[in-house]
Amino acid sequence: MINPTFIAMRLRSAFRTPDLLIWIFAFPIILYTVLTLIFGNIGAVEGINFKVALLDQAEEGTGTQIIHSIFDELSYAGEGKSALFTFERVNNIEAALEMLRMNKVSLIVEIPEDFNQKFHQILLFGAFLGDRVVAPEIILYEIDVRQGSRTARDIMDQILSSVNAEAARRMNRDLPEIQSRAQIVGRTETFSYPDFFLVGVLLMSIFSVGFFGVGADIAWLKSEGVLKRFVASPLTTKTYMSSLIVEQLVTIFCSFLILLSFSVLVFGATFSILRPQALIFVILGIVTSLSFGLALGTLAKTPRAAAGLGNALFFPMQFLGGLYFPVFDLPPAIQWFVYINPLTWLSTGMRHEMQLVGSPYPAFLHYLVPVLWISVLLVFTLRKFRWEVD
Amino acid sequence: MIRHFNGLFLAMARNRYRDKAALFWSFAFPFMFLVIFGAVFGTGDTTQDPEQIKTQFTRIGVHFSQSVPIEIENKLIDLMQLMHLTPFRAKSYAELEKGVEDSADGIRFGLAIEGDPASLAITTILNAGRENQNPLYQSLSSTFTQKAKTYLIDFRDIMTTRPEQVSLTGETISQFGYILAGVLAVSISMSGITSLIVSLGYFRKNKILKRIIATPARAGAFIAADMVNTIILSAISSCGILILSNLMYGIRFQIHPIFFPVAFLASTLLMVSFGGLFLLLFREPNAASNAVNIVTNVMIFFSGVYVPLEFLPDWLKGFANVLPLYHIARTMRFSLGQDLMAIGEYWGIIVAFLGISLLFIPFVGRSIFNMERK
After folding, report:
1. pTM for this model (two decimals)
2. A97 to chain B: nearest residue by CA?
3. What is the ipTM metric for this complex?
4. CB contact (8 A) between residue B120 and residue A163
5. Over the stretch B32-47, which tens digit does the pLDDT of each residue have?
6. Which of B36, B121, B312 sits opposite A316 (nearest CB)?
């Protein structure tokens, strides 16, 4: 049933096509690199530097000395590291606001003129005069709509708040011990971005083969009359179809191998995708993708139509399938698409089996939705497939 | 010349109208972008409206274990409210985890507080799905922990901080509007960068260019007709995005009557010349189209539209700075009243865009026509 000569001929032809080499082999690597570099850095303090305009209007004094020593510490870059904050002194608030608005700095820290005076008052008389003495203020100017500015203000606020705790400690006040830790729900302890994006980019690559390899290829062969000529040759339908599938499997396997090696060697991804339970989803993904490709090739009359239809389907499928970022908490008008999208279940199932992200859904749904799609698409292809354009 | 231009312009317009792929990239693709990214990223609660800022609270889930005395509970709840956090109580730790995972009541993150007055433990429960905002929530929780230490013992703070919101333009700006201005930049770029590849590239491949050369029409008329077509198509698509943003998400852009059209024109022409350079480099339109798609995809991620560049290391920020889409997104935000930039910088970028376009578009056109003549 499988014709090795025909497969070898098709593979030679495929591997000589620059489009295929770019989209199946090069593009996944580029996309994977970009995603891992960008999202892998979000939340990591290392390498991040916030520029701050410092407007010190106070005279020399104890209070400002303490603040400046904190700022000196914050702007110190350790060996091979960058400082969390870089302070730039400014002389007036107008200049500082201009810098903030123009995004030259993320934050303005203003130490008002009466800072030291109030600082001394609260230290000396705070205990006796109570609310009649006002604590000195440091004003933090931010632009809320810019996430960087919000984060910079929040970190600065947190650092400056620690001054009070330190003062209380030095005044021999018994501070409660508060331990803090963070826990992330919706993903497991073994989460890593290189693994997370490996799943997303692999599925993207597998579905590219289905949509733009199989679908567009069948449409092209049909529109050029090549398929009709195949029928006239000793090649049977079964041989043609099985050879087409084997050819795509070889292509996907090569792409998978290249992507996996790259992610492991360059970004330190693990081999957890090779777990048998995760591999089931890789296989299910391949079958789903090929089913989509066959249906697309059946439906489209020209390769351009196949490409257009493929793009129109593939674009929302990949972005609303959780390949690159989790999709939940969406408006109902969009959420239904997430639920019927086979990529949602394939990516969730694969990540769940790799113990990257816990799935909030019953496990059988991970298999059921893709299997339903495969059934519907194959029935459609078998009923509607024609060897030539009508 | 004008007659040739008119004829070519109409022929090209008809060709584009019939080209389903071109229509998809010009209209359907930006629309999908708008809907998908609007739904995914447009749920932020950030505004620049001074009145709203005063009353803007972040919803959080809270669970106190039974060992925490009621007076400590009350004090911590007070502190949360002082910090503009609205607590929603969960009956158990598990309920809190579930609530955070499902974003029940719109909560953004959770705080589980355990222990006794002398030693407390605060666990910040973050949702993996809010990866973009989690650093902010983590930081908010750390500030809460820090402040709680002195607040619980009624320690009189020796200094305080006062946040001041700075308005960018004096008008209401939402985080979503900020993102949508970037979406428009992406749409303009996609439309421009594929323009010469579709016209010069495929016309050459299909021998149509050869036939045009044989007519009295000049290369200049052909390029001009193509440019005007691209600009009109892109303008229709951009207007569609602006109207849909308003209808679907209630975003009102403050469109500057000069800055916006100028930025739109300069950005489109820059991306047209960019696409043309790829065509010259690769010759074969399919190869050029592939290369352009890859470069555009990379540029989108580094444009600052979806991922704030402040969170990237300096070397990645430097890389983003040399990509044209980053500057197109900035000029778009500025001309739509979603961000500020120095007027001098704006005109500097525009002059650079136009300079590059005026240099490269005729060069690409002439080179392709000469190749065809040979």
Report:
1. 0.75
2. B166
3. 0.70
4. no
5. 877 777 766 654 444 4
6. B36
